[in-house]
Amino acid sequence: MGTTALVTGANRGIGRSIAEGLAALGACVLVGARIREAADEVVAEIVGSGGLAEPFVVDIADSASVAGAAGRIGDLDILVNNAAIKLEHHPSPPSRASIDDIQATLDTNVIGTIRMIQAMLPALLRSPHPRIVNLSSGLGSLTFATTPGSKYQERPLISYSTSKAALNMVTVLFANEFRETPLRINAVDPGPVNTPMTQGRATRRPIDGAEPVLAAVLIADDGPTGCFFDEQGVVPW
After folding, report:
1. Does residue 196 or residue 12 have the better pLDDT?
2. Is the pLDDT of residue 149 over 80?
3. Strand pairing report for 131-135 and 78-81
4. CB 38 within 8 A of CB 55
5. pLDDT in tens, 21-63
6. d(CA 14, CA 148)
7. Which three-class secondary structure state does DSSP give residue 102?
8. Which fold has domain 4-234?
9. Which residues pair with 132 in a beta bridge?
């Protein structure tokens, strides 16, 4: 592949599988994590398997951390915005939701992602084939949320679902701005995956969730941008 890719939240779960998948494709992977030791573990595994990887410390919820990361970045072809938080462990009525949890979730999942995109755009736009993939969720689909009897309607998670719906709009707006350039930016729903975030409530492996993300990374210069995909294809907004 001969490219450089940055994956945020790459120290575990889907992010780790994305990093490993990109390395297997030949990319030099910047393993993004808030803690250096967590990134080092993934880097050691990738390098031990013959891949190229470097630790990349960044906290997307911290403006100074992201600014520092932007100052350290060199060439960059791929940005995968995987890092996110989910503070709601169980569905609950929106009327009783914690405002602090909502704000914290939006600060990380939405503002943090915008912060990363803005910071890394100068490097990405120097690439001949720049790609951005934002990890979204079916929980952010307004169509699913308004479908009677669907799990998305019956299991409200206002903090997380709102953040992913907002992230979808972020994806579209950036895609519109750069539609006439080689930059392709899309949102991908990895689907339910058994990770620390899902706490054992899913059976699919992290590599299963990584596969549609890797497919979005490989989209051609004239391919879709500003779209929402999962492993089955297009997800309704």
Report:
1. 12
2. yes
3. parallel
4. no
5. 999 999 999 999 999 999 999 999 999 999 999 999 999 999 9
6. 30
7. helix
8. Rossmann fold (3.40.50)
9. 79, 185
Helix ranges, 73-226 (H): 99-106, 113-124, 142-145, 151-154, 158-177, 206-217
pLDDT number for residue 151: 81
- Residue 11, number of CB atoms within 10 A of its CB: 24
Given 56, 144, 152, 160, which residue is catalytic?
A: 160
For the question of residue 152 being annotated catalytic, the response is no
Contacts of 34 (CB under 8 A, 6+ apart): 57, 58, 59
DSSP state of 138: G
Pairing relationship of beta strands 184-188 and 131-135 according to DSSP bridges: parallel
In total, the chain counts a number of residues equal to 237
List the chain domain ranges: 4-234
Distance separating alpha carbons of residues 185 and 50, to the nearest angstrom:
29
Helix axes 63-72, 113-124, angle to 10 degrees: 20
Tokens matching residue 63: 């403006």
| Cα distances (Å, whole numbers) of residue 133 to 53, 93, 107, 156, 158 | 19, 31, 19, 25, 23
Q: What are phi and psi of 230, to 5 degrees?
A: -135, -170
